Amino acid sequence: MADWAAGQFAAGFETVKFRAMSDPDTTVDLLDHVVGRLPAGGRFIIDAVQACASSPWPVEAAVRVGRHAAALGARWYEEPCQADDVAGFARVRAAVDVPISGVESNGTVREFAELIAAGGVDIVQPDVTFVGGPRAFSRVAELAREASIDCVPHVWGSAVTFAANLHTVFAEPSVELFEFCTLPNPLRDALRVEPVDFADGTIGAPTAPGLGVQLTEEIERRFAFRPGGGHVIR
After folding, report:
1. What one-character DSSP code corresponds to residue 193?
2. How close are the terminal C-alpha atoms of the chain, in Å?
3. What is the CATH number of the domain that holds 149?
4. What's the CA dihedral at 183, 89, 106, 113 to 10 degrees?
5. What pLDDT does 138 receive?
6. Could you say which of 55, 104, 111, 229 would form a disulfide bridge with 154 (CB–CB 3.0 to 4.6 Å)?
7. Which domain holds residue 64?
């Protein structure tokens, strides 16, 4: 993990995000190991991944990890509670000195409105392809502006997800950060009509027509469906 993070900074990123381990204690060990090896000036985010966890951490454990992340200088602490545990988000936020973010899997503007109203987050993370499209994303961004909190899109997986979020955030002046997954994904890269304009920690606006994604017969042949396949995160 430390070697991966070093590679991201060498590629021009100024902040890296890595996932928590399955339990709080090992996550604390991970933070100590990785953060101590980051280059000077490099920033980090810890994603607890509890929003979609089948057995989420108790709030007390989430607070303990958050306090440790805060002591190490985390940029923010992502999804310390299950997605619908609005009260838990508010409790964690009140107890730790690090910005709290969420919830990428929220599928409605109303869910974000409830989370903001409860004081559960410092950063909302809508995904255009989850929350209901660009108009719904814009409504969430507006709610964030009204509450004086930040909006950072969740961007993960497919070329369509990447492109739809990128187009949308260029229409949102309050959005300053864009999540950029660099894990190997040949299908995602093949679907792009043009390469991503990334340099010196910034990403440029796309110029291709439409979303900038094209599914060709050749791509369908290269990436034919195989029963039993799939991506598993452990």
Report:
1. S
2. 14
3. 3.20.20.120
4. -130
5. 97
6. 104
7. 2-184
Distance CA(170)–CA(14), nearest Å, equals 20
- How much is the pTM? 0.94
Residue 193 lies inside a defined structural domain of this protein: no
Distance (Å, rounded) from C-alpha 97 to C-alpha 85? Answer: 20
DSSP, collapsed to helix, strand or coil, labels residue 130 as helix
Question: What is the β-pairing status of strands 202-203 and 198-199?
Answer: antiparallel
- Does residue 31 contact residue 72 with C-beta atoms inside 8 Å? yes
Residue 208 forms part of a structural domain: no
> With bands split at pLDDT 50, 70 and 90, how would you rate the model's confidence at 233?
low
Rounded Cα distance between 57 and 163, Å, is 33
Structure tokens at 111: 């869910």
Number of domains in the chain: 1
For residue 198, is it within any domain? Answer: no
Query: CB neighbours of 88 closer than 8 A, spacing ≥ 6?
Result: 59, 62, 80, 81, 82
Q: What type of residue is 106?
A: N
Give the number of other CB atoms < 10 A from CB of residue 9.
18
| Domain-located, residue 190 | no
Residues 68 and 123: their CA atoms lie apart, in Å, by 19
7 to each of 95, 107, 165, 214, how far by Cα in Å? Answer: 33, 33, 25, 30
Cα separation, 47 vs 76, whole angstroms: 9
The pair of structure tokens assigned to 126 is 């809508």
DSSP 212: S
Give residue-wise pLDDT tens across range 54-84: 999 999 999 999 999 999 999 999 999 999 9
**Do 178 and 153 touch, CB atoms closer than 8 A?**
yes
Dihedral, CA of residue 66, residue 70, residue 71 and residue 72, to nearest 10: 100
